[in-house]
Amino acid sequence: MSPDPHSPESVPPAAPAEPAAVLSRRKLRLTGVAAVALAAVVVIMGVTTRRMADARLSEWTEQQAVPSVSLASPDARGRRISIDLPGRLEAYSQAQLFARVSGYLKEWKADIGTPVKAGQLLAEIEAPDLDQQIMQAEAGVTSARANALLARQTLERGQSLVKSGAVSKQDLDKRAADSANQDGLVKSAQANLDRLRVLEKYKRIVAPFDGLVTARTTDVGQLINAGSSGGPALFVVSDTAKLRAYVNVPQNYVPSIKLGTKAQITVPEYPGRSFTGIVEASAQSVEAASGTTRMLLSVDNSSGELMTGAFANVRLELPTPEAAIHVPASALMFDQNGLRVATVSADNRIVLKQVTIARDLGKEVEIGTGLSPDDRIVESPPDGIASGDLVRVVGPAGSPEADTAKQLQPPAKPPRG
Questions:
Q1: Burial code of 232-261, b = ≥16 C-beta within 10 A, e = fewer?
Q2: 277 DSSP β-pair partners
Q3: Which residues contact 29 (CB under 8 A, 6 or more apart)?
Q4: 340, 327 in Cβ contact below 8 A?
C-alpha cells in the first residue's frame, strides 16, 4: 500500500538553518562587543588622561606657590665712585659799579660784552650841583685864609705893643686864640674842598680790573642817584678768565671730598665736552634746611667759552675702600627689624642678613657691614618673604634658570569630551 502523500508521516523533516545566517548573527554580536570594549577603552583613556593633567596642574600650582626670585651678585671691585651735583658758575671776581655822585649820565664808553682794562673809562656823569659845591668850597677856603692872615697880623701887632703897655695881657691872649681859630677854619675849609674834589673824580666811572662788561643798566641823559639805594648798578664788570663753581654737597659725602679734589664740569651748551675744576674751599658747615655743605671750585676759563651765571653739572670723584661691597638699592628691606638684605643659600632657602649702609650712590648702595662678596643677593625681594622660605631662582633669558622657569609653565588642559 502506497503511503499517503498528505499524511504527517509522509512530510519530510525540516532542513537545518543556513550557515550564512548563523555567521551573520555571530558577527553582529562580536561587533557589538568590540564597540563596547572600544568605548570602554576611550572612556578609560579619557579619565586617565584627565587625571594625569589634573595631577600635573596640581603639581604646577604647588610649584607656583614657591616664589621666584632673581639674584644679583655683590660688586666688590675696588674702584672710584663719582657723584653728580648741580652747580652754578660765577665770575671769580665781579664788581657792581654804582655812582658816588648825583647828576645825569653824560656818555658811556663800553657796552655789554666789551672787554675792558683796569682804569678804562666806562661812563662819565655830569654833576652841576657838585661843581657849584666845589666853587663854594674854594671861595670858603680863600675867605678862611684871609681871616687867618688878618688874625695872625693882629696877634703880631699886639705882641709888639704888649711891652709898652698899650695892649693888655688879656687882649693879647684873645688875639692869639682868634688866630688859632682862624687857622683851624682854614684847615676845615680845605678838607671840605679836598672831599669834594675826590667826589669829582667819581664823575668818571672806570673799570676796577681787567674783565668783561656783563651788564649795563644806564643810558645817556638818565638821572643818576648816588649810592646803591638809587637803583641797580650802572655797570657790572666780571673777571671771566677764571670762574667759581658753587655746589651743595650732601653731608655724608663731605669727609670724602678733600681740598684739591678734581671734578669734571659739563654745561648744556657743550654736549660731550667737560672742563676741569678743583675744589678750593668748603664752608665747613651744614645748612640745616638742605643738609648740605657749600663748596667752591675754581674753573679755568682762559678760552672764554664758559659763561657766568650758567648752570653746570659737577661730577666729583669719591675714593672707595678696596673691600667695599655694592648692591642694587632695590635689594634693601626695611621693616621693624631694621635694614636687611635677602640672600639665597645653597639649598635655595632665604637668609635675611642685617646690614649697614656706608654710602648711598643712587641706584647702588655701598654696604658697610653684614655682607660678604660671595653672597647671593635677591635683587627685588617679594613682600612677606622670611628666613627659611624656599624660593625658585630665575635668571635672564637664555640662562639655565630661565629654561627651568619656562618648563614650569602651566600644562594645557585637555578639552572635555
A1: ebbbbbbbbbebbbbbbbeeebbebbeeeb
A2: 263, 299
A3: none
A4: no
Phi-psi region of 384 (alpha: psi -120 to 50; beta: other; left: phi over 0): left
> How large is the average pLDDT for residues 298-310?
91
Predicted confidence (pLDDT) at residue 399 exceeds the cutoff of 60: no
Place of cell 646690614: 355
User: Nearest CA to 365 among 324, 337, 334, 335?
Assistant: 324
Q: For the chain, what percent of residues have pLDDT higher than 70? A: 84
Long-range contacts, 341-347 (Cβ 8 Å, 24+): 341/367, 341/370, 341/371, 341/375, 341/377, 341/378, 342/69, 342/377, 342/378, 342/381, 342/385, 343/371, 343/375, 343/376, 343/377, 343/378, 344/69, 344/71, 344/376, 344/378, 344/391, 344/393, 345/376
Residue predicted with more confidence, 396 or 141: 141
* Three-class SS state of 121: strand
Collect all residues with Cβ–Cβ distance below 8 Å to 405 and sequence separation of at least 6.
68, 392, 394
Backbone phi, psi, residue 155, to 5°: -65, -40
Specify whether the CB–CB gap between 313 and 266 falls below 8 A.
Answer: yes
With the C-alpha atoms ordered 267, 270, 271, 275, is the resulting torsion angle positive or negative?
A: negative
Cβ(178)–Cβ(170) below 8 Å: no
Separation of alpha carbons 169 and 158, rounded Å = 9
- Backbone phi, psi, residue 272, to 5°: 85, -5
Reported pTM: 0.54
Cα 2 from chain centroid (whole Å): 140
Domains of the chain: 68-78+323-407 (2.40.420.20), 99-125+203-233 (2.40.50.100), 128-201 (1.10.287.470)
Q: What are phi and psi of 97, to 5 degrees?
A: -100, 115
Which helix (H) or strand (E) element contains residue 412? Answer: none
Answer whether residue 410 shows pLDDT above 50. no
Q: How far is CA 232 from CA 94, 100, 218, 224, 235, in A?
A: 15, 13, 9, 11, 9
Cell matching residue 298: 675754581
Contact 245, 267 (CB under 8 A): no
